[in-house]
Design a protein that fits this description.
Chains A, B: The chain crosses the membrane at residues 298-315, 394-415. 2 copies of one chain form a homodimer. Chain A is an alpha/beta fold. The first copy, chain A, contains 25 helices and 18 strands. Chain A has 3 domains: 2-261, 3-Layer(aba) Sandwich (Rossmann fold), CATH 3.40.50; 282-437, Rossmann fold (3-Layer(aba) Sandwich); 460-584, 3-Layer(aba) Sandwich (Rossmann fold). A 6-stranded parallel β-sheet of chain A has the order 9-8-10-11-13-12, sandwiched between helices. Chain A has a 5-stranded parallel β-sheet with strand order 2-3-4-6-5, with helices on both faces. In chain A, strands 14-16-15-17-18 form a 5-stranded mixed β-sheet, sandwiched between helices. The N and C termini of chain A lie far apart (66 Å).
Chain lengths: 585, 585
């Protein structure tokens, strides 16, 4: 086995082309085997095996610097840079993270998980090299899907002004997570079909040199192409055509479903039974609800930025939605601002993405939606400690971020009926941009009458108690409810339990009323405390005798955390919450 | 005078071409006259007189929808849409705002003040039109400078996929606020020089149709070009070449200085004496400091995103800085992430922009800088109630926004020596991204020994008092100090006065120590309370008897506010602050 001999990129330089081809096959087999047993990205990595081998063969890493966009295609890179055990031995699968991480290896330059950053990072690396008279080569690897993000396009233009070495590899597998959207993809198609010769070349329009290599899954062709590209002493784009999912039939045939996948049976491609979660899927329910609403109302417009599954808009639902669905590609800024334009002209837009990706649209939510009081609805998933747990994908900061925007209503509904009633209300009202955190975890049946109107603010009290009031926000409602029960068991005192629903504005009348017969307000914050809901409550009572106990996270990045341990550490689970309450009472 | 007859765009349709030419001259004269007496944008408006006339002649506004990017070029538009008095009569100059505003006129679709949003807004308007079977035409007007912003480029691509009418007018005056940066501008130059015929057309690469009109300051040519463009039932770019500052010699010759200008003498172009502020300019001092540091250290790299004056980097300073200065154009995302790449490779980057524009880079500050613990320094101006006061340009939310990002240190220095020592420290440390709010208002001499190190946190106590502690943050230090004096005069009690310096992290030891002999902590917050510094203090004491009085703004948008009145309303000035303290004591 060639792979046995490869412990660092240095070893690749001793290999024959035949060896490198064999190596690609071996790596691909291990990747497929691992994917069948360990969740993770599939298509992006299978398509980038040969290119990774060629890159490490031609360049002198880690002296030469390679930045991988998103870095979800770096499993082959990790295999070649001292971490192959994590791909070859099941017991070691968890020894590497899913993205590049400088803590893992000197071959990984940055922790990366969002798209479209690689060109800008590479320009910065090159700029520092030039200032400090370095000689290393700098390479950015970016997929065609990531190219739709504005900062990648900004980067292309700024790279086009640079006067020293910078190689941008466009890994074109004709796909984003799902299909690409945007006129630029017609241009890329023309380039692929003309072997790079077509007119109106985006990269040349940005002031860059351009090379094309059709054989993006052939090591020898890639080595030649890279040798040539490496010789340029100015910025150049090497556009390579690769096959997403190469070598795994299911992934080649259904690229969208196999961008990322749960463990599966190698023979059938079916997800392993133990990963088939029972229960309802809030995303699928959301798509169902919106499709029904679209049929009744042509003004309803669903917009997403490249992440389609989270709100249940798979190929079937997209087809059903027709012109009432727009995928803008990975372009959250455009997603939000397009929604603003549509709202202004009478549409009822819903923009969906994951919490961590909405960060890209902060300015647009503020400047385009909120200043203009445009009734756009934004729905995000994973804005919860129960959501995604890689440090580059955390939704723990979104409330704090969004809470700085005036005129924006932010809701974290706890119950299913509440969530859909809220979504409906948000689409029909004409006053405010609305941000909704879709419930994570178990989909809960309503424990209070479902409201029809959600602003001005009024909290749901379930039920009234005394002495202690527990605010259980959004996806942490269940934990708070169980905590309240435990507290009652332990003390005989029935606390008030509140589902605030809205996290951007206070129900001041309710809070004042609590002062009558409560001495402690407990806030269970689903994220960091800094800038969140608990600080607002504490601030409200800051001249009053009411004590406020804030149970939430410190302002830190958390990586691949153990949910139970983290909640325990911060007294957020149903048991330790009670201990902490008893301490401060 | 033709302008006398024009009360709405409808009236333009009755004019001969000769009349329209005369009108352009009349409008330009009024604009110049007004600019000489009223601060505001100059160059963008003078260059866009003819195009505005042609637009309102050819299109049927307000049924047809025109979105102006930034909307700083809309003085001519306002003159033609019922607001000419505000440009013709000095007593009425203040009756209009500097940007489009739907509250001002039905011809203004959005409040806009940031760049690069127009294409996305227009796509949204067109999308809603198509869903609701409307027939109105949709037009986006965008300058070449705004085109460097990523969301504009995203928009071009998404527009390139649309199948119905959408006109994008590229108003190319060969300038951003200062000169343009990015390879795309080489492409635009080739297009201008070839009358639109050059190869590698950016717009066609994005899937759009393309037209070129060289005579961008000739009404008749523009009317013809617009008639043609209007007939397209698919997205088309009409690239017009205009002259920024046309008709005002000074503005034609020094486009950067005359993008926006203070009132001036018509004969000499010199700023009117009453607008020559005495005192030190923190921006110019910053440039001086950084240029001196650059000379000693080749690793220092100053980056800006199109706004050069705020940190004192005018043409002379840019030349002096040479390769150690990068202007990325209006591309804040790239500015921050390029800085991250540079920091990773040994440079000491400082990124500068205005507070309101840093909003665009939230995700990059979090994902690229903070997660990676990269030592980039960001300096912003106008992150204060004393800063810019148009609702689209407020810096009142930046602290709250940035406070949601772990690992980011946020400083609001009060004193000159403190600010420069901090800047130096930030550039030399290797642990954290640092965000510095440059002091606004009077540049203050230090009232305490200048620190050399700024993290871990330690507050500056000036001096220790008792009973009441007043935290006077950043640019509000002076107000807080005077408030403290007034309080002492009134009560005989000397309060503690604190310059916290850092607003992202608490000096917990200090806060605990205050509990010994203080019963009230007053926090003077330079911005909104939500998510700011005061909420953190309130939260810190939320289980303690210490009272916290938060003096800051409600989470709202404020427009063209009267500073004194606003501070009085929120008890933030030196007098009413004391009244409020006495109330709660």
């Amino acid at each position: 086995m060639v792979l046995e001999r490869i412990n660092s990129p240095e070893d690749l330089k001793q290999c024959s082309m035949g060896d490198l081809n064999t190596l690609a096959g071996e790596m691909r087999n291990f990747l497929i085997e691992r994917a069948s047993k360990h969740m993770g990205h599939v298509g992006p990595d299978l398509g980038f095996v040969e290119a990774t081998i060629a890159l490490h063969r031609v360049f002198d890493t880690p002296k030469d610097k390679i930045v991988f966009d998103v870095s979800h295609q770096t499993y082959p890179h990790k295999m070649l840079t001292g971490r192959k055990k994590a791909y070859m031995e099941e017991a070691s699968y968890d020894e590497v993270g899913p993205y590049t991480d400088p803590k893992e290896s000197p071959y990984d330059l940055f922790s990366i998980g969002h798209t479209s950053t690689s060109i800008d990072l590479a320009i910065g690396l090159a700029k520092a090299r030039d200032l400090l008279s370095g000689t290393e080569k700098v390479v950015a690897v970016i997929g065609d899907g990531s190219l739709s993000g504005g900062m990648a396009l900004e980067g292309l233009s700024i790279a086009g002004e640079q006067e020293s070495q910078l190689l941008i590899i466009l890994n074109d597998n004709e796909m984003s997570i799902a299909e690409n959207h945007g006129g630029m993809y017609k241009g890329l198609k023309r380039l692929r079909e003309s072997n790079g010769q077509a007119e109106d070349n985006l990269f040349r329009a940005m002031g860059l040199e351009y090379l094309y290599e059709e054989q993006g899954n052939d090591v020898e062709s890639l080595v030649k192409a890279l040798e040539k590209a490496k010789s340029y002493e100015k910025p150049v784009v090497l556009h390579i055509h690769t096959a997403k999912g190469k070598g795994l039939k299911f992934a080649e045939e259904d690229k969208e479903s196999w961008h990322w996948h749960l463990p599966f049976h190698l023979e059938t491609g079916k997800t392993r039974e133990e990963y088939n979660f029972p229960g309802e899927d809030i995303g699928e329910l959301t798509a169902e609800f919106l499709l029904a609403k679209m049929k009744k109302d042509p003004a309803v417009l669903v917009i997403t930025a490249g992440v389609l599954g989270g709100m249940g808009f798979y190929a079937k639902q997209r087809k059903e939605a027709g012109k009432q669905f727009v995928d803008v590609g990975i372009a959250e800024q455009t997603g939000v601002t397009l929604a603003c334009g549509a709202a202004k002209n009478g549409a009822k837009p819903v923009f969906f993405t994951s919490a961590t990706f909405l960060q890209r649209a902060y300015d647009q939510i503020s400047h385009d939606a909120a200043i203009n009081s445009l009734p756009i609805t934004m729905v995000v998933n994973s804005a919860s400690i129960l959501g995604m747990r890689d440090k580059t994908h955390l939704g723990l900061y979104l409330l704090a971020m969004a809470n700085s925007i005036p005129n924006l209503l932010i809701f974290a509904p706890a119950f299913k009926g509440e969530y859909f009633s809220l979504l409906d209300w948000a689409l029909e009202q004409q006053e405010h941009p609305v941000l909704i955190f879709a419930p994570e975890g178990n989909v809960l049946e309503d424990e209070a009458p479902v409201k029809k109107s959600f602003f001005p603010v009024s909290y749901q009290e379930i039920p009234r108690g005394k002495k202690v009031a527990i605010f259980a926000t959004g996806s942490l409602y269940e934990e708070g409810r169980e905590g309240a029960k435990n507290f009652e068991k332990k003390t005989g005192i029935k606390p008030s339990l509140i589902n605030p629903g809205i996290l951007s504005h206070l129900d001041k009348a309710y809070l004042e009323n609590l002062e009558k017969d409560h001495e402690l307000v407990v806030v269970l914050e689903d994220g960091i405390l800094s800038g969140g809901f608990a600080e607002k409550i504490a601030s409200f009572y800051s001249l009053k005798p009411m004590k406020v106990l804030s149970l939430g996270l410190e302002k830190e990045f958390y990586d691949e955390y153990d949910l139970e341990a983290l909640m325990k550490e911060y007294h957020m689970d149903r048991e330790s919450m009670v201990e902490r309450i008893l301490e401060v009472l």
